[in-house]
Amino acid sequence: MDLTAILNGITDDMAARPDRGAVARYIPQLANVDPDQFAMSICLADGTQLSAGDAQVPFSIQSVSKVFSLALALGRVGDNLWTRVGREPSGQAFDSILLLEQEKGRPRNPFINAGAIVTTDTYLEGHSPAEALGGLMRFIREAADDDSIHIDEDVARSEIATGHRNFALAHYMQSHGNLRHAPELTLGTYFHQCAVAMNTDQLARAGRFLMNAPDMPRMVSDGRVRRINALMLTCGQYDGSGDFAYRVGLPGKSGVGGGILVIAPGKASIAVWSPGLNDYGNSHLGTIAVEVLARKTGWSIFG
């Protein structure tokens, strides 16, 4: 199997497609991103890394960061996290308050915004926001083996200025006793977490700990790797998770910055980026690209 040829073919195909989705406009810094960019990177279990397109261009990973914050929170409190956050698909938009009202302030899963805010609130426990973010960045940098990864302060400020729905979610959860810190502290940490900037080469490397393959970084236990991957499969693409599982057959986590981290267990960590989003809020071309990759490589958890 010639992965380089497959990767280059996918990149050429994506460049030729006229429908590129629409960039996220509710965060001003994301609204200015060039929608014509596309990148894809693959880290294999043997350590080989392949990339194509704009693989050196940094982008805001946004909700892809929730994978790393979940790993950090589970490392801090273990399965006690699940008393505050569920593990079920939401069937609703990522920033919906509907189920939060019905379920008395306990979010459905850690990958919708409300659940991720609780996850951030968990790893913030006992630390200042700066200390908590420092711990998260050390985790991501160690996973990627790259100390240059940083937080884009302009994106963070943009999110703080426009994050009204997230503030509403946080205040609603606080009213039910499911937020341990003042909303501005938890959300300040959360917005900076979402503003981590990475390119696809870095993101693919950072995802290697979820491959559960020999010689890959061991950041969490094997059992937690399996559970994080399970949640990525069932909840990682918001209310498009079922469609993604059907089309791709691999665990993945998307972000409104246009990035998707996809794991082929035991085989590869894959990062794709294209800023234009589909109706679910996931990268339009990125979703197509990983579907094509899975079909051409035969990578699927379903055999």
Automatic annotation (TrEMBL):
Homotetramer. GO terms for molecular function: glutaminase activity. GO terms for biological process: glutamate biosynthetic process; L-glutamine catabolic process. The keyword Acetylation applies. It is an enzyme of class 3 (hydrolase). This is Glutaminase. The lineage of its organism: Bacteria, Pseudomonadati, Pseudomonadota, Alphaproteobacteria, Rhodobacterales. HAMAP family: Glutaminase. Keywords: Acetylation, Hydrolase. Substrate binds at S63, N113, E159, N166, Y190, Y238, V256. PANTHER family: GLUTAMINASE (PTHR12544:SF29). It catalyses: L-glutamine + H2O = L-glutamate + NH4(+). It comes from the Bacteria. Its EC number is 3.5.1.2. It comes from Pontivivens marinum. Belongs to the glutaminase family. The keyword Disulfide bond does not apply.
